[in-house]
Amino acid sequence: MRPVVTDLTDADPSTGSLLWPEELRGSAVVVKFGGNAMVDASLQRTFAQDIVELWHAGLRPVVVHGGGPQISAMLDRLGLESRFEAGLRVTTPEAMEVVRMVLTGRVQRELVGHINAHGPFAVGMTGEDAHTMTAVRRPAWVDGRPVDIGLVGDIVDVNPGMVRTLLEQGHIPVVSPVARGEDGQVYNVNADLAASALAVALDAERLVMLTDVEGLYADWPHSTEVIERLTVDALDELLPGLASGMLPKMEGCLRAVRGGVRRAHVLDGRVPHSVLRGVLGETAPGTTVFPDAGPDRAS
Fold it and tell me: What does the radius of gyration of the chain's CA atoms come to, in whole angstroms?
């Protein structure tokens, strides 16, 4: 392996190579790319380096990307309303056209380009391709009452065959979170929840969520103390009281770990190489969710 990154504390000082847990070789790692890392050119490059480093280390990375800032900017440019309810974008039919255009025509292509600057690795696809993801319209509630959030979908089925094929051929799938329903309708799926569903379907060892905060705060907004480790049962108790922006991420972590993923990380994407630190698991700059049995079982 030719190491891309040599400035982590988890490196062998004699060689500069990263000390990867041997048991992770050949394992799928699903990484949700979002937050400030998506709009900062330097962080985009280091993210791509991290993903390629995972590949060189013998892991099988899969990237699911968001595109919130870019979608909002395009909606503003077109004079269309940009509104959120329960942490999810309200998606009208007109907004859905913009979502598909921005995610698959811009964000995905830029990310594929950054990764492929290091070699012929990345292949772009969407949840629509080969019926990889099937969604139904997602209900939402605010203060105990239902609200209409439009064409927002919740994943009800994942067929990971195409993703597995790409991984077996040595590629890095880059997935846009757009899915089709059995009714033929195309849905905007929250990227955190899409990454979670795909991680479960792939029997992934790790789920990594990048965001633009330090992690899950213990008592937001009164404290900025980050909860570094918690079990899914503890997370389940905290979930109803979380701020809307963090809610889909932590819901995704909860679903993933209960579905068999051994660790889920919510990491500060503003920290360079946070993906590598998260997968290594010892100096993860954020919050790590474990099964109820605790860290010893998940290590």
Answer: 18
